[in-house]
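To: structure subgroup
Subject: Chain for Friday's discussion

All,

I'm putting the inputs and outputs inline so they're searchable in the archive.
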Amino acid sequence: MALLGRYFEGEGLEIAATHGRAVAELALAVGREVALAPDECAFIQEAAMLHDIGVCRVAAPGIGALGVHPYIMHGILGREILEREGLPRHALVCERHIGVGLTARDIADQKLPLPPRDMVPRTTAEEIICFADLFFSKNPGRLTLRTPPERVREKLSGFGQDKLQIFDAWLERFGAALH
């Protein structure tokens, strides 16, 4: 929380912290469900709290973010911040948590303002945080309301069958924690 407080203030801090806590709670439940080691669960809790730190540098006034960059860049901006803070493993979570992950092809095909490289979760911890994040909005009126899996699938369907297949595989592996 102290680290978030160095980058956010006011409404932005409240939204980042509340969203981070919601994601962290679900991610921890998943970590316990799949019997991750306690140190890995501790990492998941920290990284989930910080996964959206890059939002502080994007232009999204509706969620208290008064930066200048497009929202899609919050992952790489978060990576830069956390690398400077000496948290390289946490930094990778920031970069790799967008949707179910972005491939270099996604970035090129959608002409996204991102470096042309794969930014997909590669570890179980990264997958769990990415999975948990899909269920929570940063909309101030919905911060702690968990989106049903059917709605998550509906939103992901616009990004291709491959994204749905990733989500469905995660739902199979991690979905018991949703009950």
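Points worth raising on Friday:
The mean pLDDT is 97.
The first strand starts at residue 59 and ends at 60.

D.
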